[in-house]
Every structure is written in C-alpha cells, then in structure tokens.
Amino acid sequence: MRQLLGLLILLLGLSAAQAQDVDPNRMPPHLDPARTANGLAPTPPMGWNSWNRFGCDIDETIVRRTADALVESGMRDAGYIHVIVDDCWQGPRLADGSITADPQRFPSGMRALADHIHARGLRFGLYSDAGRLTCGGRPGSQGHEYQDARTYAAWGVDYLKYDWCHTGTRNAEEAYALMADALRATGRDIILSICEWGNNQPWLWAQKIGNLWRTTGDIFDAWEGVDRHRIGVMNIVDRNEPLWPYAGPGHWNDPDMLEVGNGGMTNDEYRAHFGLWAMMAAPLIAGNDISAMDDDTSAILLNREVIAVDQDPLGVQGRRVWRDGGRELWVKPLAGGARALLLLNRGEAPARIAATWEQLGYPAHLRGRIRDLWAHRDLPPASGRFEAEVAPHAAVMVTVRP
Ligand code: GLA
What residue owns the CA closest to ligand 1's atom 11? Predict the structure, then answer.
C-alpha cells in the first residue's frame, strides 16, 4: 500500500514537472534539441527552388540565371544560399542503373551546373523521390538509393529534397532512413529535405533522419483555400502551428516553399506570409523568378530584420498565443531573452490588436524596446503591452527587447 502511494506521488510529481515545462522558451522535455540527423542546418535552410514558379518547365539556363541573380540581388549575402532544382531534371537510367540528367534540358550536365553554382558561393540542391517514379513521372530512387546518393555526391550536390509519389505501401520512416544512410555513406554533407506532406507524421520520427520535413500538402499562391492537391497560406499556417514543439536546430517543420513574388497575393499578404514563415522558423526557400523580381518583392525577401527572426540561433518555432476571430497574436522567443511578436489580421476590415507582456512571458513592469521590422524603425519603449492597427490580410511585426 505504501509502495503504491509512493508510486502515485512520483507520477503526480512527474506530470506536474511536465506541465511546468510547457513554456515558450523551452523545448518539451521529451525532445532533445541537440539531436540532429547529420549536424547540418543549425538554422532553417534558406535558398531558392524551381518548382513554385517553373514547375516541370525547368532547364540549366534558368538555373544558371537564377544563381547569378541570387548574387546580384544580394539574396545570397542575406542567406539564400541553396539553389535547388526540383522535379523534371532527370533523364533515363543507364544500363547499369545510374541516373542521368535530361539531355535536352541540362545538356552541360549536372557537374557543370554544380560548378557554376559553387563558383558563386552557393550550394546545389536536387530533387528525387522514394518511389519508382517522381511526382512528375521521372525515374525515382526506389531500389537505387545508394547508387543515386553516390551520383549526387560526385556531382557536388549539397541538398536533397526527397518526395513521396508512387511509393505504394512503402514504410515512410524506413524509406527516408535508407536514403539518409545512403547520403551519410557518401561522406559528403548533404541536407535531407523530407517531402511526404505530413502524411506519416514525420515530426514524430524524423529528427535523426532529415533536416526538415514538409508538414502539409503543396502550397499555392493564395491567401486561403484548399483543393484536392493544394492549400492556401492561412490553411498551411493553421496546420503547421501546432507542431511547434517538434522543431529545433537541425530538424525543422517545413510549411512549404515561399510564394512571395509569384503574383497571386497582395504585398500585404506576401509580407504576412513571409513574416509568419519567419515566426515559425520555417525554411525560407524562395519560389519566384529571382532574375525578374520587382522592388516590392525584393524588399520582402531581403528584409534582414525578418530573416534574423527566422534564423535566430535559439531555434524555437514561434506559436500563436491568442486568437479572436480573425485577429491573432504570435510570439517567438529569441536568443538573449527578446521576443518577436506578430499581430495578424486575417479579416476583411482594419483591426486594432493588442499584446500584453503576460502573453509574451514577461512581467508587466518590464520596459521593452520596440522595433518595427517592416518600417525599419524604433517605436517608443513600452511597458505592459503593445498594440497596433493592422490592415486587412496583413501583419505587423516587431521585436520586444527587455
Ligand atoms: C510534390 C511536392 C512538390 C514538388 C512536386 C514535383 O507535389 O510536394 O513540392 O516537388 O511534387 O513534382
């Protein structure tokens, strides 16, 4: 009886300790933030991927032009270092099973493309699939994992996005672990981007397998809406937000690539999209035509103050701490005790939104320095609360520093 009582007290103590640990500043106790797949991606990966803008209509001219534009626009220096060629680069497999590049689209070959990219201080990413075929119907890597990993390493690949079409009844954890092992065996540092759309809850098993994992179906360039294949920005946000405890250095939730600059949303909406991705410590993979950006687009993608929130070394995914109808408050703890704060108005009319220091995890008397990250200016210091008027389909983003 006394033993039973002892056990009960122990269990009660443990659950109280766990409840206390649900704190925006800390990782939940069952997740060790130091565990990573391969020591890569201590902050969310940044770069460009061909898919959102070019789809299957991709070739080496576009990729070279984009690499050059990343340098000229200042995006490389702002952190966008990965140049990732998505689906449809593949040609046939040779008789020995090795994969080739499509000779019409990539006549100079992948090694030459990698050299062009590396010569500009950028890194080279490729796409494959854990099934027999990719989503675009090109050869997938199933049954060729080690062979493909060796080919990628020989080409100079630094990043692999690994998709999930045509996988039949394959076990996802096994399939991704196999490719992770194959990449490791090459001895080259290759970031692994898991892309099974959240179907098998990779946040529960992929921490030591991949560096990022998609949490939803494919994004499309719209504020909201869901169809059979694609999902709008607000809907993605709602699915990615609750997964905040699973993100950390080396292993990130991936709510899909950016649509900023692709023309389907207003600049306010794009700023909210970009700001929310930064709050969620999401990979910042631009998906527009970098060589033909307008000034509004580059001002969004090159906002270094917002990028710094995304890339903050603490590596905690921000979360929604309050919502009322279309008004929301998001908080992300930053290294050194500061907070990023995002006031989101999803509604159709301007709205006043206020955050209390309690919602930020600060004592009410604390005096905070406030910095507006879109206006790039300091606001008057505040105690106890911060509030602002937010335009429809827009977000105000500030940092609060004690
Ligand atoms: C899937 C992925 C996309 C893209 C396409 C390519 O839909 O989720 O991001 O890679 O395949 O076919």
Answer: 135
